[in-house]
Fold:
Amino acid sequence: MSRQQQERDPQGGSAIRLENLSKQYPNSPHPAVDNVSLDIEPGEFVVFLGPSGCGKTTLLKMVNRIYEPTGGKIWIDKTEVHELAAPQLRRQIGYVIQQTGLFPHMRIADNVATVPRLLKWKKARINRRVEELLDLVGLPPESYARRYPAQLSGGEQQRVGLARALAAEPSTMLMDEPFGALDAITRNRLQEELLRIHRQIKQTILFVTHDIDEAVRLADRIVVLRQGKVEQFATPLEIISNPANDFVAELVGAEDVLRRMSLIPIASAATAINGQRNVDDPTISGSSFLRDAIGTMVETGSERLSVVDEDGHPVKSLTMEDIQQAVSTSDAEENASERRATSASD
Amino acid sequence: MDFTYLRENPDVVWEHTIEHIQLSLTAMGIAMPIAIVLGILATRILWLTTPIVSIISILYTVPSIALLAFLIPSQGIGERPALIMLVMYAQLFLVRNIVAGLNGVDPATLEAARGLGMNEAQLFAKVWLPLALPVIIAGVRTGLVTTISLATIAGWVNAGGLGELMFQGLALGRESTVLAGVVAVSALSLTIDILIRALERLTPVARAQRAAAP
Ligand SMILES: Nc1ncnc2c1ncn2[C@@H]1O[C@H](COP(=O)(O)OP(=O)(O)OP(=O)(O)O)[C@@H](O)[C@H]1O
Ligand SMILES: [Mg+2]
Structure:
């Protein structure tokens, strides 16, 4: 939390407040979303994590009113979402889904221009914005703008979906398993770029996944859901090191992640000191492992450590982000080598 | 085959062809708005889909001559019963394809369109209809080609068109007159089929498909 207070510009995103939010589908024995209350800070990247059917999608779709709640309220800054007509509300909220939902009969540029056109921007402004966005998501406009969605790979289509959602600079983004259908390597690259874009624009992002590694990598805070109820709402670090109950522990495979962290040397995850090192940062030896670093962080309450060599001289620094990065990279490598092994065997 | 009549009376055949086109297009012009209403009702109100589509399919199984004979006592002879019959039969192709076209659009695409902030009218005009259009136009094509061939029966109730020429030929035992009618009807169907296929190629979906074809 201190991280985003230090680094995030509150102008970039909206504060979102869920107040006793519930959704009871007709003919369903229990509510899909059950009395959920959450305070999400401006610019925060919040990941909703939970097993299939726990209500992640239902919750997300109530924010832009694709589903109507049966109880409770949703505030985006000072506005309850029902104060606006649904189309007006949705034009201020970016929306990305796993199936991409790209319009197959429109060129990429027209897909991306959808919301600016609905908002009746001037043509020149739209064209400029489309080029800017395609560049932002790594699709050079000169080779992509005039193609149709069917002429793109799955990863490229998802980039277009992202660009389309970002078009009118929404202060809130809803993303429902956007990378769920992609291979591990593409997913990793897109996660990285989403983080880069988020650091740049600082919009508030509500992101749904059931992939714990994706959640740990992306989230400022994770909401763990089970049968429509919040089991824990905390930073990835807290969730992994201090799961609220057995359900959370099992879901995040806390032991598994910790085991992985106990195998990664700190030296391989730490980054060069970039001048802003605080002399008060707790120190840790470069030859110990990430698990030790987490322990030190939890003990000292600091999210940045100074990595020292055998002589006790600071050589590098290690942040929570570095750890997240290292853990998810090791995971991707593991997956990739596993796949290579299976494809070689058959 | 005896093409004497076609050779000696091209103007008469042409005149009947024009009449035939007029009758078919009038029927189509009446059938379309009805089909659009029925098609939209059937897609929007889920429990109506099955009854609407099955009633229309059942109507289609009634033989055309029987239907005409049934209409004559109340509608008399001439254009009226012929048009009623043609409009009824065209419904099958039109409604079935409107329903299939609209229902065939990927729900995720529609949800994305709504999620981006399109209202229902924008959604329909920019996404739903364009994506359903190829299937709908194909329905118009088969509907119109069927109407053209069925419209020959209209000659039997003096509604004009190429059917009249063929029934005259039959009554007088002139094979060459009948043949002229058959040739003209086939040529007409083929032309319409080609024209509408060209139209299908102009739809945004077809254009996107062509661009994506390797
Ligand atoms: N349109 C609907 N009508 C009735 N019940 C629904 C509807 N959509 C979802 N549900 C039910 O609500 C519950 C939550 O579904 P939801 O789609 O929100 O889960 P989810 O967490 O997104 O799951 P997944 O990870 O599989 O996408 C499930 O029990 C589901 O069966
Ligand atoms: Mg879901």
Notes: Chain A has a mean pLDDT of 88. DSSP finds 16 helices and 14 strands in chain A.
